[in-house]
Specification:
This is Fumarate hydratase. The protein has eight helices and ten strands. By secondary structure, it is α/β, with parallel strands linked by helices. The structure holds iron/sulfur cluster.
Length: 280
């Protein structure tokens, strides 16, 4: 049994809140650069170049990449041989979010109640997902989720007879209806199977998969490629200005499901696909 002080978790979360809002991952930057080079439509090309310029300005000046600095989604994978000490883990995560957003001058975007809408003033509470895993480490993944794209996400309980074609049609239709709202080029996370809630969680987790990591299942790897092509064929383009670059990546996660159902969730992220990881 290994002890981990929750203070370390708070420190890591504070650091990741700032880092993820200033610096995009190499996979995202490479994908945007490649698309900017290959994009044949001049207007789309120039938008992608502006996006690259914005990424550079944020990195150099240590400024947030976007005014919407996101809702803090925190994924904790806790080894079953870890003993967390020094306080309650949820308080530690929220302390990290509070400090990260305050010290990083990041916008506070959370309201305490969905209908009465009073800002909590410190971007807490975080949305925390816990998973118990083998081992004696704690892996923390922080994602700052913007809501221009979150609002365009959809879930549907399809009949099993819909099959792969029905699933793909729903995913593409969701992206088409989203149009320019999620600040394309978008990143598409898909959850297929499980239950209503599990599908949505898998879709969000799929957004955290590096672009260059192929799906281990050849069937779904092929589906991801087909979907990326179909979404880019929609012609929405960067920020909705047309062209061949509507999406940068499509990632799918799956889970066993009930014989009577086929849940599908599509979680859309914008090109500001912000996340960071630490292992303690
Ligand atoms: S969708 Fe993304 S790029 Fe657009 S405003 Fe929100 S965080 Fe910013």
């Amino acid at each position: 049994m290994r002890s981990v002080d929750v203070k370390e978790i708070a420190d890591a979360v504070a650091e990741m809140a700032r880092e993820s809002n200033y610096f995009l991952g190499e996979d995202v930057k490479c994908a945007i650069q490649k698309r900017a080079q290959e994009e044949p439509w001049p207007v789309a090309k120039s938008v992608l170049e502006k996006i690259e310029e914005n990424i550079g300005i944020a990195e150099e000046g240590v400024f947030p990449l976007c005014q919407d600095t996101g809702l803090a989604c925190v994924f904790l994978e806790i080894g079953q041989d870890v003993h967390l000490t020094g306080g309650f883990v949820e308080d530690a995560v929220n302390e990290g979010v509070r400090r990260g957003y305050r010290d990083g001058y990041l916008r506070r975007s959370v309201v305490r109640d969905p209908l009465r809408r009073i800002n909590t003033g410190d971007n807490t509470p975080a949305h925390i997902h816990y998973e118990i895993v083998p081992g004696e480490q704690v892996k923390i993944t922080f994602a700052a989720k913007g809501f221009g794209s979150e609002n365009m996400s959809r879930i549907k309980m399809l009949p099993p007879s819909a099959g792969a074609e029905g699933v793909m049609d729903f995913i593409v239709k969701t992206c088409e209806e989203a149009g320019a709202n999620p600040c394309p080029p978008i990143v598409v996370g898909v959850g297929i199977g499980g239950t209503f809630d599990k599908a949505a969680l898998m879709a969000k987790e799929a957004l955290l998969i590096p672009f260059d990591r192929p799906n281990p299942d050849a069937f779904y790897a092929e589906m991801e490629e087909k979907l990326l092509r179909r979404i880019n064929d929609l012609g929405i383009g960067p920020q909705g200005f047309g062209g061949e670059t509507t999406a940068l990546s499509v990632k799918i996660k799956t889970a066993p499901t009930h014989i009577a159902g086929l849940p599908v969730a599509v979680n859309i992220n914008c090109h500001v696909s912000r996340h960071a990881e630490r292992t303690l």
